[in-house]
Amino acid sequence: MSVSPEGVELVTVLVDLPFRDGYVRSIISVSLYVSGVAVALSTLFSVPVALVLGFTDFRGKQLVKSVINTGMGFPSVVVGLVVLFAVSNQGPLGALDLVFTKEAMIVSQFVLATPPITAISLAAVSSVGDDVRDAARALGGTRLDVALVVIKEARYGIATAILAGFGRAISEVGSVLIVGGNITSASGVSKTRTLTTAIQLEARQGQYDTALVLGAVLVALVLAVNAVVVRFGDAGAMNR
Amino acid sequence: MIRLSGVSHAYGDESVVRDLSLSVEPGEVLAIIGPSGVGKTTLLRMLSLFVHPDAGRVAVDGESAWDVDADRRLALRREIGMVFQAASLFDATVARNVEYGLRVRRSWDDRLRDALGSLVGTAPTPDAVERSLDVVGLGDKLDQRARSLSGGEAQRVSFARALAYDPTYLLLDEPTSDLDPRNTGAIEDAVLEARDRGIGVVVATHDMHQAERVADRVGVLLGDGLTEVGPAERIFESPTDERTRKFIAGELVY
């Protein structure tokens, strides 16, 4: 495989960065860690919620759905602000000492990723027919078995939901800046600096080449995620 | 024996089944015939313990199903297979579909091992899966995706799926209403084979000829309940009830 001239230039830019070794790599790993953990936790929360919303009736169900739909468009800086208050010394989570930590960023990204993951999962599980659930029960399935069948039938939709949530989390700036603080250690390795907050900082400081490299990495990650979404969608369509 | 004693059920204000009594024994085919909308499906859903009757008693092998706890009821339900009018297959291979009833009866340990095994492709297909697919004549479709089957084949797989775990009773709701004669024949042959294995089969159908072909006993369900239950030959040749006679002669049109 030959390396294109552009590729060589990109490598040169990476090598010539005015930072210590591992700066870009540490930023990428902080971004992936924070968004990955937040999305994983959010999925564990959202899918059962979607199942309950999809298949049970209770008072206030419409209200919960409205809250989720509102949450999809909720301004991320406000989420960041609320999480910052929550984890600050006077806040309800103050004892955990989470201000300017990755964990605080995970909390705020969890809050941001949950509405889209829940809403898209809900649409997916709702599209599984009553007849398929009846069949699972008729064949001797317990309620848990029926829920597993629904998840399995809705797997492409749920995968889309997870990846959409990941896309929202990883390209988000406002809340991670507020609760994480965009911090690096003295040796120049990222502590709470993510791709987005680093781009914002580098661009403001005139380090456009670094900002561009980080931007390219972020776009590549998001494209990769979208490519997976499209593939899942195709696989789903092919099996129908 | 599954026995319904004086059961009634209503959806909202609309009473569908009123004070109905009926039973089915292992090793016989009971056909429930009647026009659409008289409660055949509701009747089957009560027999299969899907629907809790508003009044009356449902007993499976002498045990009153709605007076025992949920675990016991699940065990009773697992003696009963049900095939719906729509095939309702899962989005998986034919083999995985037919295996489903066996799978939910295994321990979670086994199921986890099976799931891991299927990821690396080492999970064997149980013999019962192949045997019940052979009954409906689809033994060669094991690895095909369920979604790629024709409507008739899907319905036959749905039948095999309910047969695989060897239920004591098998309930079929209009199993052939959308099928061509060849697929209908395959299902009817499978019904008779299930009966010969000692399974008690209940077929709800609006097709009287089908009832004549497969049934040992027939129950006629008209607008206001079961007008007559008895041996198939007698019902078709000399019904005692006037409405039954008209229905069978095709004069009673709904």
Polypeptide structure, described:
Chain A is an all-alpha fold and 240 residues long. Chain A has a single domain, classed as MetI-like (MetI-like fold). Chain A has helices at residues 5-15, 23-55, 61-72, 76-87, 102-126, 130-138, 143-153, 155-170, 174-180, 195-204, 208-239. In chain A, helix 2 (23-55) runs parallel beside helix 5 (102-126), helix 5 packs antiparallel against helix 8 and helix 8 (155-170) packs antiparallel against helix 11. The longest helix of chain A has 33 residues, at 23-55. Chain A is globular. Chain A starts with a helix and ends with a helix. With 254 residues, chain B is of the alpha/beta class. Chain B has one domain: Rossmann fold (3-Layer(aba) Sandwich). Helix content of chain B is 38%, strand content 24%. Chain B has helices at 40-47, 70-77, 94-104, 108-119, 127-135, 151-163, 181-196, 208-214, 232-237, 242-248; strands at 2-11, 14-24, 29-33, 55-60, 63-64, 80-83, 169-173, 200-205, 217-222, 225-231. In chain B, the strands form two sheets. Chain B has a six-stranded mixed sheet with strand order 6-7-8-3-9-10, sandwiched between helices. A four-stranded antiparallel sheet of chain B has the order 2-1-4-5, with helices on one face. In chain B, helix 3 runs parallel beside helix 6 (151-163) and helix 6 (151-163) packs parallel to helix 7. Chains A and B meet through helix 6 and helix 7 of A and helix 3 and helix 6 of B.
